[in-house]
Amino acid sequence: MYLINKVSPDEIDILQKLSKQTFFESFSWGNTEENMARYLEEGFSIDKLSRELNDENTTFYFVKDGQEVVGYMKLNEGLSQTEHQEEDSLEIERIYVLEEYQGKGIGNELLNLAKHIANQKNAPYIWLGVWEENKKAIAFYEKNGFITFDQHVFMVGEDRQIDLMMKLECRNNYK
């Protein structure tokens, strides 16, 4: 069993390091070095992460194995969602787990936490964007009941990529 806690602003350095490492592990195979470096620098800058951590409609969660942080999740609601959806829907913007911890149920634990939060907030659905080339993640979300409902553009450096937008209807589905 892993421990899941909210990330506090004083943990921003850990969040930045983990964000860069997990994104690189997840997507370096499908991106150029230049595009990857640019995205890591811009997408996970201390300034950007600080704004996100201080946003009242955004919450980060760390997953710890003992004292080691091995994964994280970022949830957005209201106006902080990356795409305009229903005001009371819940967006999972990020679920990332260190490569050596994948396949150990951490993604399921984070997803269960998101479902629990959605239930508490009476959200009509949880939604997320996942790169169309990330077959492993798409299969994970489909296995957990998510369906594709749209798509949007996600820029990695200069590379215009397509994310599938997936959602899980959840109002009154979780107790």
What's the SSE blueprint?
Blueprint: E1 3-6, H1 12-27, H2 33-43, H3 46-53, E2 58-65, E3 68-77, E4 90-97, H4 106-120, E5 125-131, H5 135-143, E6 147-156, E7 159-169
Parallel strand pairs: 4-5
Antiparallel strand pairs: 1-2, 2-3, 3-4, 5-7, 6-7
Helix pairs in contact: 1-3
Characterization of the model:
The protein has about 180 residues and is α+β, with helices and mostly antiparallel strands. The chain has a domain of about 120 residues: Aminopeptidase (3-Layer(aba) Sandwich), CATH 3.40.630. About 35% of the residues lie in helices and about 35% in strands. It is built from five helices and seven strands; from the N terminus they run E-H-H-H-E-E-E-H-E-H-E-E. It has a seven-stranded mixed sheet, sandwiched between helices. Strand 6 and strand 7 form a beta hairpin. The longest helix has 16 residues. The radius of gyration is 15 Å and the shape is globular. It starts with a strand and ends in a 6-residue tail after the last strand. The model has no long low-confidence stretch (mean pLDDT about 95).
CATH class of the domain at 3-124: Alpha Beta
Structural class category:
alpha+beta
Contiguous runs where pLDDT drops below 50 for at least 5 residues: none
Strand count, sense and barrel status of the largest sheet are: 7 strands, mixed
Instruction: Give the end-to-end Cα distance, rounded to a whole number of Å.
Output: 21 Å
- Proportion in β-strands: 25-35%
In sequence order, what are the helices and strands, one letter per element? EHHHEEEHEHEE
Number of strands: 7
- Shape, please? globular
Trace the largest sheet across and list its strands: 1-2-3-4-5-7-6
CATH topology category name of the domain at 3-124: Aminopeptidase
Could you estimate the helical fraction of the residues in percent? 25-40%
Average pLDDT score = 95
Would you identify the CATH H-level superfamily of the domain at 3-124? Gcn5-related N-acetyltransferase (GNAT)
Looking at the overall shape, the CATH architecture of the domain at 3-124 is: 3-Layer(aba) Sandwich
Radius of gyration based on Cα positions: 15 Å
Structure annotation, total helices:
5
